[in-house]
Amino acid sequence: MILISKIINKIKSLGKPASIVYPLIIIISIPLLLIINTFWNLRTFNRDVNFLIRHQAVSTADTLKPAISRSIANQEDLTALLFSSVEANSEILGITVFSESGSKLNVVSTTESSSNLEDLKKSGLNHLALGFNQPFAGLTYDPNIGKNIWNVSIPLEGIEGEGNYLLFIKLKTDTVEEILGRTSKDSYIILAILTLVTLALLINHFIFYKKAERTRELEELDRLKDEFISMAAHELRAPVTALVGYLEMLSGEISPSEKEKIKDDLEILNVLIGDLNNLINDLLDVSRIEQGRLKVEIVETNINEIVGNVIKLLIPSAAQKGLVINFTPIDLPLIKSDPNRIRQVVTNLVSNSAKYTLKGQIDIAVSLKDKFIEVMIKDTGIGIPGDEIPNLFTKFHRIKDKQTNEVRGTGLGLWITKQIVELLGGKISVESIYGTGTKFTFSLPINT
Fold first, then answer.
1. What is the C-alpha separation between 318 and 329, in angstroms, rounded?
2. SS3 state at 206
3. Where is the Histidine kinase domain (predicted)?
4. Burial letters for 289-310: b for 16+ Cβ neighbours within 10 Å, e otherwise?
5. Number of H helices and number of E strands within the chain?
């Protein structure tokens, strides 16, 4: 029940909203920050441009101030000065000199048409400039030219005469707007590119994140599956052991004459119990291997002795099928390995050959190659199709054709064999010609 509840909780956790909300926040916030940064930079640039324009107007006023001071008494000279200044600087649209009389402004001289003078007098910039005694600038729309212009009002100090004087300058924004427009366009293009790249990277990251999350979930489910298999195998072992005991007890209580009648049935039961016991052992080995709990005990090991003992055990079943097992031992050094695991490997491979060999023989040979001992098991069986070989050592893989339908097995033996060989520091390979036979070869280091 605990295992089932774990699986249910894990499945429920697959829909956790946090895994979706977090990437969405990232996807939205980064482009948003880029947009804010771009507009902030443009705003800062625009502010700096305003400062430069005001500074330009003040510089123009400082340049004109001495000349205005000299010409203030002669309106014609002052007007000529203002017109020449406008002509000399293409950025200047118009210049007007005001004098303050009480709370009113009087036009001393101007390059503007008379229709614009009343609007100029009412400009709030003039009152601010006189009130704070410092330059003020403002951006306004001029309907006469259909464009935005800069109005700059600058107090003129130190000019002899009655009251205070004020210089009002109109400046074009064409150059500034062109620069600002070009800068804005470039900024928006860069922003769009960065946003697209960021979105692409984040989407890519989101995809990989979901795949990684899915992988973790599958690994967790796989772990729970292994725990379930291990638990189920352990739980099955007890009743199988009891079944074997009851079968032996039953055989002992039956009279010889009755036992002869059910001899075939008893043999079938023994075979089925043996298959079930092998399945349980395979499941336990799979669980131990995948959880890294398969133990090996390294001792000095005699390969010839192990192979010979395995053959003695398998000769009776092979003889029933009319198969011959050939093995000629040679002088080999002892190796440092696990004899029980090597016995399991040899048993799996020879049993596998016996299963899939309908007639003929199984040849087993050992040899010494460099610092490895090589064991070869070759049969005259049905062989393996070429497209099946790449998957031969995977879990639960079985060759399916007319000749193998009746062969019993779990598809775990060769996978377990490969894992054990590699755990002992060796390698395993297979060569096969379909319809002719198969050769398995595994090698183990002399010193593990």
1. 20
2. helix
3. 231-448
4. bbeeebeeeeeebbbbebbeeb
5. 11, 12
With CA atoms as reference, report the closest residue to 168 among 187, 191, 150, 143: 150
Lowest mean per-residue pLDDT among 11-15, 177-181, 258-262, 374-378: 11-15
Q: Could you tell me which residues are beta bridge partners of residue 337? A: 299
Of the candidates 88, 90, 82, 86, the one whose C-alpha atom is nearest the C-alpha of residue 156 is 82
Q: What is the CATH number of domain 31-172?
A: 3.30.450.20
Whether residue 295 is predicted with pLDDT greater than 50 in this model: the reply is: yes
> DSSP strand E in 192-292: where?
none
Note the pLDDT tens digit of each residue in 234-287: 677 677 777 777 777 777 777 777 777 777 777 777 777 777 777 777 777 777
Beta bridge partners of 168: 96, 153
- Give CATH 3.30.565.10 domain extents, the chain: 299-445
At 362, the amino acid letter reads I
Query: In terms of Cα–Cα distance, which of 300, 348, 314, 290 is closest to 447?
Result: 300
Provide the whole-model pTM.
Answer: 0.51
Quick one: fold of 299-445?
Heat Shock Protein 90 (3.30.565)
Task: Tell me the C-alpha distance between 290 and 348, whole Å.
Answer: 19
Residues of the chain within CATH 3.30.450.20 domain(s) are: 31-172
What are residue 363's DSSP bridge partners?
Answer: 326, 378
Rounded to 10 degrees, the C-alpha dihedral 106/111/114/118 comes to -50
Q: Rounded to 5 degrees, what angle do the CA atoms 134, 135, 138 make?
A: 140
Q: How far apart are CA 346 and CA 273, in angstroms?
A: 22
CB 325 within 8 A of CB 315: yes
Q: What angle, 0 to 180 degrees and rounded to 10, lies between the N-to-C axes of helices 18-71 and 75-88?
A: 140
The alpha carbons of the chain give a radius of gyration, in whole angstroms, of 49
For residue 176, which of 48, 24, 284, 77 has the smallest C-alpha distance? 48
Measure the CA dihedral 39/41/44/45, to 10°. -110
**Comparing 405 with 435, which gets the higher pLDDT?**
435
Beta bridge partners of 377: 364, 440
Please determine, for residue 77, whether its predicted confidence score (pLDDT) is greater than 90: no
